[in-house]
Write a structure and sequence with these properties.
The protein has 15 helices and ten strands. The chain starts with a strand and ends with a helix. The relative contact order is 0.10. The longest helix has 19 residues. It has a six-stranded mixed beta sheet. Strands 3-4 form a two-stranded antiparallel ribbon. The chain is an alpha/beta fold and about 350 residues long.
């Protein structure tokens, strides 16, 4: 198998941190034989040469726009010098010419204000998208046909994905690795990068209390307690009691610190636990459901269908721990909170077609 080629479009005024995210995340995953699953290439809209950054240094980019024609995925990081793209929602001639080289069916993604490029190209009309919360209102005024959600970390709309700023770009890239090759591969990358393995795309961008006030109680202990007993029934009142709070106070504080309700968070953790067990063990579906805290296979099936668009059997068949590492196409794995229309990124492979046929199992 040839590695999936990720081409990162470097524009003048780019943020070096965000440019580095795709290289860090996609440059690590390997299959069971130790082969890289992705090849990451950086290109410019001009012939090879320097690209200015928002820092006090420039970068030498070794590839021109022709690299875009070779991409399986194109990522557009943020830039502070988008000119008419940012001011009027219009592509420059050289940017339009570069984007015209992208092959139909190529997966597209943006980090932060990189979404302006996709919108100016008309690729987001009628589709959901997000960007940094501080820029969302202006972006919506400039592109009224885009369905802007200013609150989420990222949006997966099948063949086009958009994210909020900076760290949300890490979440987006890990999500794409997880979508392509399963939770085990993505979690390994996250461990090596020393970042949380999974932040749900529907989680709020702006969390009121990301670092608990030392003068006030936190929900951290309750979360750690719950993670240690996901296989058991967990009541909201029990979590609140761990922090000596009323249910009402605990729920409010939890949402301030985590960005979602305790119930949503528990479901997310149980889905992640189920994914890990399906990939890494030969436990029966019934046993996985019990160990992940869903109780019954039917309950787990409903939650995985809602979260991923596939059944436990289909998920296991696609992402086996023996290193098959087969990507799931966009129409099969979805992000329910953030997907309005899922579109295939390329013709389905044999394994993808098998997954689709088995999705009722």
């Amino acid at each position: 198998m040839l590695p999936h080629r990720v081409v990162v479009l470097a524009l003048d005024g780019l943020l070096p941190f965000e440019l580095g995210i795709p290289h860090r995340i996609f440059g690590r995953p390997r299959d069971a034989q130790g082969r890289l699953l992705y090849e990451v290439v950086t290109c410019s809209v001009r012939p090879p040469g320097p690209v200015e950054t928002d820092a006090d240094f420039a970068l030498h980019v070794a590839h021109g726009p022709e690299a875009l024609a070779t991409a399986d995925t194109v990522i557009v990081p943020a830039s502070y010098e988008l000119g008419p793209v940012y001011e009027r929602g219009e592509l420059t001639d050289e940017l339009a010419a570069a984007l015209a080289l992208v092959r139909p069916g190529t997966r597209l993604a943006s980090i932060c204000t990189g979404v302006y490029v996709l919108a100016a190209a008309g690729l987001l009309d009628g589709r959901p998208a997000t960007t940094h919360w501080a820029d969302a209102e202006r972006f919506q005024r400039l592109f009224p046909r885009v369905k802007v959600d200013p609150d989420v970390l990222f949006i997966d709309d099948g063949d086009i994905l958009t994210s909020a700023g900076v760290a949300a770009g890490i979440d987006l890239c890990l999500h794409m690795v997880r979508r392509d090759h399963g939770a085990a591969v993505a979690n390994d990358v996250a461990r090596r990068t020393v970042v949380p393995p999974h932040r749900d795309g529907g989680q709020a961008q702006y969390i009121q209390r990301p670092v608990p006030d030392p003068q006030q109680a936190s929900t951290t202990g309750a979360r750690a307690w719950a993670l240690g007993r996901l296989h058991e029934p967990i009541q909201l009142r029990d979590m609140a009691a761990r922090e000596s709070m009323s249910v009402r106070t605990f729920t409010r504080r939890f949402r301030e610190e985590v960005g979602v309700s305790p119930g949503q968070w528990l479901t997310q953790q149980r889905v992640e636990r189920a994914r890990h067990l399906l990939e890494s063990t030969d436990l029966s579906v019934d046993q996985v459901a019990r160990d992940a805290g869903f109780g019954t296979a039917q309950s787990m099936r409903q939650h995985l269908q809602a979260a991923l668009g596939v059944t436990p059997t289909a998920y296991r068949r696609t992402f086996r721990a023996n290193g098959a590492a087969r990507p799931v196409p966009a129409q099969d794995v979805r992000h329910p909170q953030n997907v309005s229309t899922a579109r295939a990124t390329r013709p389905a492979s044999a394994s993808a077609r098998a997954l689709s046929k088995s999705s009722t199992g």
